[in-house]
């Protein structure tokens, strides 16, 4: 992403005309789709043709892409890199009323982790890989290279803005832009609701065939269980999701060949409960993992 200088208006939206359009054009030239935001840091309302989404959206705003309307409509979907659109009469009128520039991160191949307060920033510094950071009014934007689905409220004070979302452009920031890490993608993983109760003694279906199990070697199996315990124990956030994904990984490797015993499952449950998971949550997570794997 380029590093244009951005002069913004004061809180009252008045004062000298800001250099918003040059900054927007510089971002657009670098392939970053932009749009203006009005007072309140919100997009401009739809034009009469698109009011109430009577135009059907693009289509119905369920997929990423530019807005079909030549106006500044449909929020993130209005974002464009076309200089002719950005300088058109309709958009010029919007820039005169705008207070800042926004962009569509996902369309630029970016993901913004929006940290809304000091506690969220402290969490990110302790948990996420370093990347380019931009200060905001109350926190920071951490920007990664790579797009994903946007999610709000993935944890207290943390939103993910990428595809089908917009983020304010607040300046170039500092630090080196790094690739989107699994730790950020994992924030969007939601464990499915429990589908059925599962007894504490878990019966794992044996693999069909000659009955020879390649995983019965003590070293291989012990290493797998130990690594799973370690993954759960070292989780610093999203413990519930980490437990589910770990159960899923263990079952995908050992669940169909008859390797797992009640002792192994008990070790995994014990590790999860040591991180604060209840026995019920452990049982439900295991049942959900079995269901996800068709077991």
What does this structure look like?
The chain is an alpha+beta fold. 33% of the residues lie in helices and 14% in strands. It is built from nine helices and ten strands. It has helices spanning 20-29, 83-86, 89-97, 118-127, 182-185, 218-233, 239-254, 262-274, 279-292, and strands at 34-38, 42-43, 100-103, 110-115, 132-135, 140-145, 151-155, 158-161, 167-168, 178-179. The strands form two sheets. Strands 4, 5, 6, 7, 8 and 10 form a six-stranded mixed β-sheet that branches. Strand 7 and strand 8 (158-161) form a beta hairpin. Helix 6 (218-233) packs antiparallel against helix 7, helix 6 (218-233) packs parallel to helix 8 and helix 7 (239-254) packs across helix 9. The longest helix is centred in the last third of the chain and has 16 residues, at 218-233. It is elongated, with a radius of gyration of 24 Å. The two termini are 46 Å apart. 35% of the residues are buried. Mean pLDDT is 80; it is low at 5-18 and 195-211.
Question: How does the SSE layout of this entry go?
Answer:
Layout: H1 20-29, E1 34-38, E2 42-43, H2 83-86, H3 89-97, E3 100-103, E4 110-115, H4 118-127, E5 132-135, E6 140-145, E7 151-155, E8 158-161, E9 167-168, E10 178-179, H5 182-185, H6 218-233, H7 239-254, H8 262-274, H9 279-292
Parallel strand pairs: 6-10
Antiparallel strand pairs: 1-2, 1-3, 3-9, 4-6, 4-8, 5-6, 7-8
Helix pairs in contact: 6-7, 6-8, 7-9
């Amino acid at each position: 992403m380029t590093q244009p200088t951005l002069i913004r208006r004061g809180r009252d939206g008045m004062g000298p005309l800001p250099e918003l359009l040059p900054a927007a054009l510089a971002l657009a030239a670098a392939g970053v789709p932009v749009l203006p935001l009005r007072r309140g840091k919100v997009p401009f309302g739809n034009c009469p043709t698109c009011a109430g989404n009577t135009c059907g959206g693009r289509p119905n705003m369920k997929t990423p892409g530019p807005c079909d309307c030549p106006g500044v409509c449909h929020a993130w979907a209005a974002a464009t890199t076309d200089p002719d659109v950005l300088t058109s009469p309709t958009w010029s009128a919007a820039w005169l009323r705008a207070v800042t520039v926004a962009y569509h991160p996902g369309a630029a191949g970016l993901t913004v982790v929006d940290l809304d307060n000091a506690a969220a920033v402290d969490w990110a510094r302790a948990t996420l890989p370093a990347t380019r950071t931009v200060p905001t009014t109350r926190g920071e934007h951490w920007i990664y290279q790579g797009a994903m689905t946007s999610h709000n409220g993935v944890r207290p004070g943390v939103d993910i803005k990428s595809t089908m979302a917009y983020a304010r452009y607040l300046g170039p920031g500092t630090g080196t832009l790094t690739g989107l890490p699994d730790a950020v993608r994992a924030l969007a993983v939601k464990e499915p609701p429990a589908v059925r109760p599962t007894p504490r003694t878990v019966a794992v279906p044996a693999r069909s065939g000659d009955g020879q199990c390649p995983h019965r070697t003590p070293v291989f199996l012990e290493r797998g269980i130990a690594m799973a315990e370690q993954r759960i124990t070292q989780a610093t956030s999203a413990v519930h999701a980490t437990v589910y994904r770990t159960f899923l990984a263990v079952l995908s490797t050992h669940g169909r060949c008859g390797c797992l015993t009640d002792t192994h499952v008990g070790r995994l449950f014990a590790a999860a409960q040591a991180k604060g998971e209840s026995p019920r949550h452990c049982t439900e997570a295991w049942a959900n993992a079995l269901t996800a794997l068709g077991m």
